[in-house]
Amino acid sequence: MILEATGLRKRYGDTAVLDGVDLAVAEGSVLALLGPNGAGKTTTVRILGTLTRPDGGSARIAGFDIVTQPRQVREVIALTGQYAAVDAQQTGRENLTMIGRLLRLGRAGATKRSAQLLERFELTGAADRRVVTYSGGMRRRLDLAMSLVAAPRLLFLDEPTAGLDPASRATMWDAVGELVCAGTTVVLTTQYLEEADRLADRIVLIDDGRVAAEGSADELKARVGGDRLELWFADRASLEKAAVVLDVPADPQETRIGIPTDGSATELHRVLDALRAANAEPDRVTSHRPTLDDVFVGLTRRTLTTAGSTR
Amino acid sequence: MSATLTMVGRSVRLTRRNVDTMIMSVVLPLLMMALYVYVFGGAIDTGTAYVTYVVPGTILLCAGYGAASTAMAVADDMNSGMIDRLRSMPVRASAVLTGHVAASVARNAVATTVVVGAAVAMGFRPTASPLDWLLAAALVLLYVLALSWLAAGLGTLARSVESASALSFVMLFLPYLSSAFVPTETMPAVLRAIGDHQPVTPIIETVRGLLTGTPIGSAGWVGPVWAVGLLVVSFAFSVWCYRRRTRH
User: Fold this and answer.
1) Number of domains within chain B
2) Which of A14, A218, A281, B223 lies most in the core, judged by the most C-beta atoms within 10 Å?
3) For B126-176, what is each residue's pLDDT tens digit?
4) Residue A251 contacts by C-beta under 8 Å, 6 or more apart in sequence?
5) d(CA A94, CA B236)
């Protein structure tokens, strides 16, 4: 295990942001911390990245204690924060060379490493333009490149694709995929189920400062049972009535309700009869394999989009 | 050390490219000086050509504007994630502050040169010997360093660039309550008491005396003592602010 954390706690004033988080990450794997806004994902990453001291619990990265040996930990890790930390008035190349010089690669070493990273992140053409002229996707790529100057063994990515368009998101995913192929361990936070599903070997569902569930995407999906039944409603009133009958949360942004099902015709009949009796019949019914969204609702009884706003 | 040099290089580069900063720290004091010399100067009796009187004050005013830019640049780094990037690397992240202070000194050197040059064009005729110039420059440097470290500390505490700019207004304001633009004897008693006993007045009187031969008197030691004292306190303040903000 390159990273082992036990019982991480952090309070800000009266709020327990982290309330005992345990993590274990095998070298070369990708762990996704999945959860709504305010769940404690960023705090976890900041603590592991030696930026914030935990109030309780401990963690070791590559055998070094994050609180007592931050210097050694920093030799191993790199952290890409939620907002691209790049100098808008420097060029892409200058930003990268600056990091290389700080890491004592020397002038020639820093120049060479910058050129490699610019090439790899398809920024060579824009290398000598100021970052202020870059698109959001280019900034994020440069930000990631800056974290890779030292070739870290463990990379933390805090919401690496938040606010990116689908094409830039796909490019970031490819970049992370390549890193992992090259043996880098990645811990990323995300609110996007698709991102966790696609990139992560293991997923830790975080809700309200605690680990709600942990496992591979398939294991987590298996935990909420077999197929899912989706019921689509013509109007909000019948959706809300149906939610009460079925005892599930009603997502204000959705026009459907998802429930677990064993896939049998008998169960379908039972559900529809119950809804008809309550005068809350759906328009349309579909069934599908569970998604991580279903997992989140099933395990926390909240939806990803509403969970943040209940805090 | 190499981290510091890298961050100095970065801050100087950013300063050069930031048009706002250059305007604020060079053009603004220049305009102020022209305004004082040509608009108000005629009505202010200082016993000499007003341009001769106003040069030392303008130089110190420059330092204030330059420091305000420093506070904003530091606040930007503290809040944009740059400091977090550096702190998660095996480098001394506080080098970012040293970089901004060094850039502030460089910026002020340019601003001061421009101001003195413009003043000469407006009729300023200094009588200083090379040694006087050197002493005056050293005193101004101490003052600039003190203000820059103070600004770096304020920038570290500020939660946004805007609040950093607001916090640094004191540094812009002090020269107005000194003998920078009018002799303190012309002020009402309360203001005069403030003016005579705040650090800017003796520093200005010393610089003025060195450049134009006016009597320096006790300002000759009070000014430098103030400047050194301010520098020590500002540096300690800035270290304290940085530790407080990054206490992990």
Assistant:
1) 1
2) B223
3) 988 999 999 999 999 999 999 999 999 999 998 888 888 888 877 778 888
4) A303, A305, A306
5) 32
The verdict on ipTM greater than 0.90 is: no
Residues of B with CB under 8 A from a CB of A: 2-3, 6-7, 9-10, 13-14, 17-18, 80-82, 84-91, 95, 247-248
CB contact under 8 A, A51 and B84: yes
Which domain, by its residues, includes A270?
227-288
For B202, the domain range is 2-245
CA distance linking residue B87 with residue A42, whole number of Å: 16
Q: Give the Cα separation of B248 and A12 in Å (integer).
A: 13
Report residue B154 as tokens: 């304020």
Paired strand residues for A287: A229
Any domain includes A301: no
Choose the closest CB to B248 out of A53, A79, A99.
Answer: A53
State both tokens at B82.
């740059």
A78 CB neighbours in chain B (<8 A) are 88-89
Rg (alpha carbons) of chain B, rounded to whole number:
18
Tokens of A75: 């030799």
pTM of the model: 0.82
